[in-house]
Specification:
This protein has five helices and five strands, in the order H-E-E-E-E-E-H-H-H-H. It has about 150 residues and is of the alpha+beta class.
């Protein structure tokens, strides 16, 4: 079994391997701090030279003892499908777009607490409803006449 794992590791290294600067996380099987984040300083075959983010300590680890976030992102970019990721093609239930907004930290914490308490059941539905109500209020005929 170890033989096949070694062959698979070498094949993966050949296709898309770790690069200097990659961000990684140490797995349970690593001897150093489990779950510690690190940056790849060098690659020596199947061994990585890492610098721990928290302590700046330099150590070596086998490539199978790390989760390589940067490699995962490179693989995703390399295999990027020509469709919206996350849903199968043609499964769109309604016409939605993804939007990024900036919210005051205290407001967001109150919102997240409301989610945790079960007051807000569905984030998307709640925000759609609140924005719609706010726009209806702002654009109501009586509001426009008063301005």
């Amino acid at each position: 079994m170890h033989f096949f794992k070694a062959i698979a590791t070498l094949y993966a290294l050949d296709r898309l391997s770790a690069l200097v600067g990659d961000k990684v996380k140490l797995k349970r099987s690593a001897r150093a701090e489990v779950g510690a984040h690190a940056v790849v300083l060098g690659v020596d075959g199947p061994r990585l030279i890492l610098r721990l983010t928290e302590s700046d300590r330099v150590l070596q680890s086998s490539i199978e003892h790390v989760t390589n976030f940067s490699l995962a992102a490179r693989k995703a970019w390399h295999n990027m499908p020509a469709r919206n990721v996350g849903r199968p093609k043609g499964s769109r239930v309604c016409d939605r777009i993804s939007v990024t907004i900036r919210v005051d930290r205290t407001l967001w914490e109150k919102f997240r607490q409301a989610e945790s308490d079960g007051i807000v059941q569905d984030r998307t539905s709640a925000l759609n409803e609140w924005i719609s109500e706010g726009l209806d209020h702002l654009t109501a005929p009586t509001r426009r006449r008063a301005s």
